[in-house]
Specification:
mainly alpha; 2 domains; about 85% helix; single chain; flat
Length: about 170
């Protein structure tokens, strides 16, 4: 049953990626050709400016498509993980405490990083006057970085412990 659901998630994600990609190639590339054709009769300096404007707009369009695809992949990944956890708890009740303790530790690490380690101080750096950085944005970024550092450290410690524990067996 679980393999079927995993296949359904995978196939659905691939279909969504294919649909978004086809939409891009069918509708948006035609608009690009039209925009380029409109610049054919312009003087060279105005044509260069117009082509630069088209390039900037298309860069943003491609970035938005990448963001949509990433968001879809993230949603399906989280959905698949939640489904896996629920199915494991339903199928084997003895694993439920371990899973719930693991989830509590993860939530605890995130809350610890957010409330204790993260700073809402906005840093000054080259170009910081050109972008809007708020204290909450800095706090979220700090939280993500500290969670990454802690989980990476715990992973390395677990790998070292696993290797050292083999010597005593």
């Amino acid at each position: 049953m679980l393999e079927k659901v995993s296949k359904i998630f995978g196939i659905t994600l691939l279909v969504l990626v294919a649909l978004v990609t086809l939409h891009f190639f069918i509708f948006d590339l035609g608009a690009l050709e039209t925009q380029i054709a409109e610049t054919a009769d312009l003087p060279s300096d105005l044509k260069a400016f117009k082509m630069q404007e088209i390039g900037i707009n298309w860069g943003a369009t491609i970035l938005y498509f990448a963001i949509v695809l990433f968001a879809l992949a993230a949603i399906f990944l989280v959905g698949a993980l939640i489904w896996q956890v629920v199915r494991t708890i339903i199928d084997d009740k003895s694993k439920a405490p371990v899973i719930l303790i693991t989830l509590a530790v993860i939530v605890g690490i995130v809350l610890l990083c957010y409330f204790v380690f993260a700073s809402s101080e906005v840093p000054f750096f080259l170009g910081s006057d050109k972008i809007e950085v708020t204290g909450e944005t800095c706090r979220l970024i700090d939280t993500g970085l500290y969670v990454l550092y802690i989980t990476l450290g715990l992973t390395i410690c677990a790998a070292i412990y696993s290797e050292i524990a083999k010597f005593w067996k």
